[in-house]
Write a structure and sequence with these properties.
With 339 residues, the protein is mainly beta. It has one helix spanning 304-338; strands at residues 2-4, 7-9, 15-24, 27-29, 47-56, 66-79, 82-87, 91-93, 98-106, 114-126, 130-142, 149-157, 160-161, 168-176, 182-191, 196-205, 215-222, 231-234, 236-241, 246-250, 253-256. Helix content is 10%, strand content 45%. A hairpin with a 4-residue loop joins strand 19 and strand 20 (246-250).
Length: 339
């Protein structure tokens, strides 16, 4: 055994990998050995799953437990020059037993086409205080399409509208995850039902992972008609590139709700919602009379002139009476003064 810093390391470790499988997409490559190249390639934004079985090779008669074991899987330098690493929780293994640990990695969107080293390690300590360890190396190949743009953001702000239907925004972000530069990229945003049709020539997007020139972002603003019916509308976002031979698309959903405050139109008339003519019906005024009008004898003619003359006579009569009363009062007052 090798001894370092008062810790004993096993020259012939009893901790090993009894089986290592790798799953890429729907394919599983089984029983890989140290130094193998994984025969299935992967791509940006794909998952790679490592299924690692660690084994305690002490025999049942030895009956030596290995404790505090950790298994670690590392894909080296794949993330903009940095490692991607995962480690299991600590566990114990009795003699002549094994256990499986699974590690799942998402290959970065921004990655260079290359072959990357994979390091799988395990370490624990047996009952004698000896460090038991195991190590395996594999090779993982990442390939990329020559021409491939990916929409990494297409967010509607707001995603749901009602009364306020102006200044709807579509926030977009595009990433070149292919091997080749794209020299002429166009964006089209469209929905025929809402009258939306935006065309934008955005130019070049370079194929340089983790560099600003490999990305494009922009916010597009539009409005929707006030008479648009309630419902869910796909806002179609389409990228054309590689001399219009390739297309990338997505369709975020805009939800439109009826505006509760607009049940009547701007002129105050009822809002026509079904496209048919609207007939405005005004109810007849209620008959408020409670007494039956007096019957007028046949042949009687009532005119405005007769009514006017009757009123003048009545006023004149009142005036004469008032004048007579005043005269009497004055005479009485004068006679009392003389006496």
């Amino acid at each position: 055994m090798l001894v370092y810093a008062n810790i004993a390391y096993a020259a012939n470790s009893r901790l090993s990998f009894s089986n290592v499988d790798v799953k890429i997409g729907s394919k599983t490559i089984r029983n890989l050995q140290n130094g193998n190249s994984i025969p299935e390639v992967t791509r940006p934004d794909r998952q790679v799953e490592f299924r690692v079985e660690a084994r305690n090779n002490f025999s049942s008669s030895d009956n030596v437990r290995i404790s505090d074991i950790t298994v670690r899987t590392t894909i080296e330098n794949i993330d903009n020059g940095n490692d991607m690493k995962q480690e299991s929780d600590r566990f114990d293994l009795r003699a002549d037993t094994e256990t499986k640990k699974i590690f799942t990695f998402d290959i970065p969107l921004e990655v260079r086409e290359d072959t990357y080293n994979v390091l799988i390690e395990a370490e624990g300590q047996d009952e004698n205080g000896t460090i038991e360890s195991a190590e395996m190396r594999l090779k993982l190949e990442v390939i990329k399409d020559n021409h491939l743009l990916k929409i990494i953001k297409d967010t509607l702000i707001p995603a749901e509208v009602s009364c306020n239907r102006n200044n709807i925004q579509l926030s977009t972000a595009i990433l070149n995850i292919g091997n080749d530069d794209e020299d002429s990229v166009s964006v089209r945003i469209q929905n025929s039902d809402l009258g939306i049709d935006i065309n934008d020539q955005i130019g070049n997007i370079k194929a340089r992972p983790n560099e600003p020139e490999s990305k494009f972002s922009k916010v597009y603003t539009f409005k929707i008609p006030e008479n648009a019916e309630a419902g869910s509308y796909p806002i179609n976002l389409k990228l054309s590139y590689n001399n219009d031979r390739q297309v990338t698309s997505d369709s975020p959903i805009l939800k439109i709700k009826d505006c509760a405050g607009k049940s009547a139109g701007a002129n105050g008339k009822p809002k026509n919602t079904d496209g048919n003519k609207v007939e405005l019906i005004t109810p007849a005024a209620a008959n408020t009379a409670t007494a039956k009008p007096s019957e007028i004898p046949p042949g009687t003619i009532i005119t405005q002139e007769n009514l006017l003359q009757g009123n003048v006579f009545f006023i004149a009569l009142i005036f004469v009476v008032v004048l007579a009363v005043i005269t009497i009062i004055v005479l009485v007052a004068m006679s009392r003064k003389r006496s």
